[in-house]
Amino acid sequence: MNGLSTILIVVGLFLLGGVISFVKQGMPKSLLVLLGIGAAMCLTAGVMRVQGLWS
Asked: Are 38 and 14 a contacting pair, CB within 8 Å?
């Protein structure tokens, strides 16, 4: 696992934690959707780099 994939996974988990926190605070749904999409994209990109699908 190289540095970029590690960073992408950590950022994705950070954003996912933000989504969970914002749900508990009752934030607007549009903000939750935006953070959720960002978290999913970061986690997916990080996992794909770990698996070697991107060279």
From this structure: no
